[in-house]
């Protein structure tokens, strides 16, 4: 086992999955430049308040596994806990190697007086998280994880047990119950009587919109299991990245008398393109594949849809779904994935079931006492 301490090792850490999944047709490589920046202190704002140590496992000079040990100080301060985390876990199908990875991460977390190990999260539930446990029959959608089925056995062998299950729903035009779309005009008129407006994000005032959306995000998701508020720098960093790939037609906000009370964001499923970009390198040819094929993407991921607590169940959520359905039809989209949803979030799960969405994938976050 070796800690990652230089740029060469960091590149090896990022590139290891490409070799591991070289024969897996569903594997989508992460963009190298994005992963490099995320894992480099000074490049990503997570490192301003928390600590991450990357580890590589070697056998006979060859990399056979990787893991990140994460001390998320903001999470522990907000939730009054002493939780440690792991992320970026990848491993050959070997219990000995997997145990060494977890043993090393656990030792690092214990040295910081942390009492549990939870994951996978990269770095928190605000980013990619969860381990796929059901639905291995296709590539992941944008910003969702993917792994081999045996990973869950390896994690269990290391002594971790289920903490929470996350659901992903698939929505297709053939099976869709489009009541939110049919009710859209009436719902918006009813909301207008109480001075509510549903509108697209104003890209010309992007920074102002982002500041308001961050307040809604941190309030609307505050009671979710494992949630930690995003700092201003973290949210701005994420928004800057999303701005490059988002379609403004698919980003909606709800406001009353100028006060933002909810928002929804759906992203084009760029994994349809990224799956063809070798080793996640945009240069020399990857950038052209991305630019030339962006308009051909025919699926989306509904990434976030939330309303602050006093304004829930007024019809705002249904309006957001109605708008997504309307835009999806106009653009000729073939599918949407709504993800992820906590399995015990009855309101969101029922809303999706009511439009005939299919809970076709499950992900799991694990935990273990240290």
From TrEMBL:
It comes from the Bacteria. It comes from Chitinophaga tropicalis. InterPro entries: Acyl_CoA_acyltransferase (IPR016181), BcerS-like (IPR039968). This is N-acetyltransferase domain-containing protein.
């Amino acid at each position: 086992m070796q800690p990652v301490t230089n740029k060469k090792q960091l590149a090896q850490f990022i590139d290891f999955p490409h070799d591991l999944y070289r024969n897996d047709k569903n594997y989508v490589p992460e963009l190298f430049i994005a992963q490099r920046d995320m894992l480099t202190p000074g490049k990503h704002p997570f490192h301003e308040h928390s600590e991450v140590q990357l580890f590589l496992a070697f056998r006979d000079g060859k990399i056979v596994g990787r893991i990140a040990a994460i001390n998320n100080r903001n999470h522990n301060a907000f939730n009054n806990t002493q939780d440690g985390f792991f992320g970026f876990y990848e491993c050959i199908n070997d219990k000995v190697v997997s145990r060494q990875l977890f043993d090393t991460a656990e030792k690092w977390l214990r040295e910081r007086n942390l009492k549990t190990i939870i994951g996978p999260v990269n770095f928190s539930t605000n980013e990619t998280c969860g381990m796929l446990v059901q639905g291995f029959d296709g590539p992941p959608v944008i910003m969702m994880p993917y792994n081999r089925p045996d990973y869950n056995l390896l994690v269990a062998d290391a002594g971790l047990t289920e903490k929470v299950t996350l659901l992903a729903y698939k929505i297709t035009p053939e099976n869709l119950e489009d009541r939110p779309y049919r009710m859209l005009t009436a719902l918006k008129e009813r909301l207008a009587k109480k001075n509510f407006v549903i509108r697209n994000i104003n890209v010309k005032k992007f920074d102002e919109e982002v500041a308001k959306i961050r307040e809604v995000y941190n309030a609307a998701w505050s009671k979710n299991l494992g949630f930690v508020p995003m700092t201003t720098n973290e949210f701005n960093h994420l928004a800057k990245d999303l701005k490059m790939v988002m379609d403004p037609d698919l980003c909606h906000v709800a406001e009353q008398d100028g006060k933002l009370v909810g928002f929804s964001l759906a992203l084009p499923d760029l994994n349809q393109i990224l799956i063809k970009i070798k080793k996640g390198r945009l240069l020399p040819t990857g950038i052209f594949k991305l630019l030339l094929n962006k308009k051909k993407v025919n699926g989306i991921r509904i990434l976030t849809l939330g309303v602050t607590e006093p304004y829930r169940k007024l019809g705002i959520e249904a309006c957001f779904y109605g708008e997504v359905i309307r835009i999806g039809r106009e653009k000729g989209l073939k599918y949407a994935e709504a993800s992820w949803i906590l399995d015990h979030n009855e309101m969101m799960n029922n809303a999706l079931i009511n439009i005939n969405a299919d809970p076709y994938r499950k992900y799991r976050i694990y935990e273990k006492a240290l």
